[in-house]
Amino acid sequence: xxxxxxLFLFIVLLFNQSHYxxxxxxxxxxxxxxxxxxxxPPGYPLYSVLSRAINYLVPFYSTPWRVxxxxxxxxxxxxxxxxxxxxxxxxxxxxxxxxxxxxLFLFPIWLYAxxxxxxxxxxLLVIAITFLLFQYSTKSSLFVLYFIFFLIGLxxxxxxxxxxxxxxxxxxxKLKWKAFLHKKYTKKVLLxxxxxxxxxxxxxxxxxxxxxYSPPLDWENAKTIDGFIRLITRSTxxxxxxxxxxxxxxxxxxxDSFSFFIFALHDFRxxxxxxxxxxxxxxxxxxxxxxxxxxxxxxxxxxxxFYTNFSLSGSFTIAMYERFLIPIYLLFIIPLAYGVAYSYExxxxxxxxxxxxxxxxxxxxxxxSLFLISYLGIIVxxxxxxxxxxxxxxxxxxxxxxxLDTVPAGxxxxxxxxxxYFTTAYYHFxxxxxxxxxxxxxxxxxxxxxxxxxxxxxPELSIPEPYDKNKDLSDFVKRNARFGVYFDNARGGAWKPxxxxxxxxxxxxxxxxxxxxxxxxxxLLWSRVYKIPEMDAELKxxxxxxxxxxxxxxxxxxxxxxxxxxxxxxKSVMIVKDIIDKYRKNDTKSKLVLVNLLxxxxxxxxxxxxxxxxxxxxxxxxxxxxxxLKDYYKKCENNNPNLNKIIKIMDKNSDTSKTPLNEF
Length: 664
Prior knowledge:
Strand content: under 5%
Largest sheet: 5 strands, mixed
Shape: globular
Structural class: mainly alpha
């Protein structure tokens, strides 16, 4: 019966898998599955081998859908093993099944079960090792021990954050090791255990083999010893950093650790946290071994969130942070199950003591069961409103094509952010989309093997040799300007907004002579090629979609700047109004830009209308925004007492900030 239930759950996941590429690292894994490439450090070779195999063996649907099978299968098995662990810990079967089902339907777990990602496999491996450690602690089977070491080797080949589980695992094994080390066959057993580990970790050979074929994606040239070490250690990012650019900030780090509870409250709801808190205390009293394992492992994960120092100020880093909660949520189910079981025990004791009527006792027990089903049902229903849209969610695919379609044939194209690079790389290399574009990843152009690869592919390009990424990028751009250079950001020199990208010009004089053509090309892109993604409250829960929408909006805003600088103020105003009315109704800075634009046009009545929609008290608290208010009052309400108030504050702070219009 349990297996039939899990078969049903698997079918639910199967019908909600993504048919299109997704954001973050997901599109990269679809690319690896299609092109025998090496993923970004640490390479994820286990996932790469599985994705290559399943993409080859499954003859139907898209590559992203096929690779998503790894995530859905791994999540189902993880939930089942979690159920087995909870029953092993003597949690009643129905409560264990409820808890394991809750795990599966938590929003981040469910979402990442429907797309290509490594975290589902990570959770499967760590829960399998934990379960086998319980088995070994009671049976001392050498086969189980060897299998544990094999799975640890697989973990090395998949995701390095498994090390956060090691202290807890060592604690579970501590009593066994004392007896184990006195046995005569210790050396032989240790040798076989090491060989089992090496066998699991041997999937890293994939990275070496793939690198020999010069694939489109090969971050570190893994076929060399130096490159292989850099790949495993993630030295490009920083060995102990979750992402490039992370730096210490004690205030932000403390906020990161605390933010886990905010996310947990959102995903588990108040009732889930209530059960988990009760369960932690119950766990301490009834199963000290599991309590210590849970506490140690949870603290190491919270320390990881503290140490990595995610800057939770934008959708992209919040989306990265959310992924690293997936292993913590797996852990959190254990005390939650204890809390539910203990609450049930208390309810039974109270009913025996205070309720004499057998019928009422049954009603109370059925009522509690109905309450748990309702709690789970609410989470399933609410999260399904988002998940049901995943299969047909083509926003990332459209975004990738829009980026590539921005560039004229023969031009140099570069985007560096995950959502833009991995998605466009998939369509360019795996689907053969826009093969007439010179697709170059500037971030690794300082690596000689990559420069050699680019010279073979695009022999007409001129690349400085040797190449210093801190000095020679502008030289590379100038040398190849005749082809047209289009980047996701201006990187020194003369650049102008060009749709979703920036176009390089040799001199400002060149810009002046081509301004009319530049405006026409931008107009064509924004009127015929692009459509800014429209997102309701449900879609906004998919954080990477917010990143994509923000890129469209910011680029559209840049087009408005270009129009203003070119003298077309009316059209610039129209664009800013469009942004505010459709996408940023509560964005103060955008409204201030519009107010200043209207003041520039001497449209004070309309400017006042938009100013009245802003909380002025908050503006007075932010000295950086006061120049905008000063500009409005000076030209439209010269007698307003607020003008003198602003002048005094600015004089006191010696504020020389520019208005948003100046920045615009």
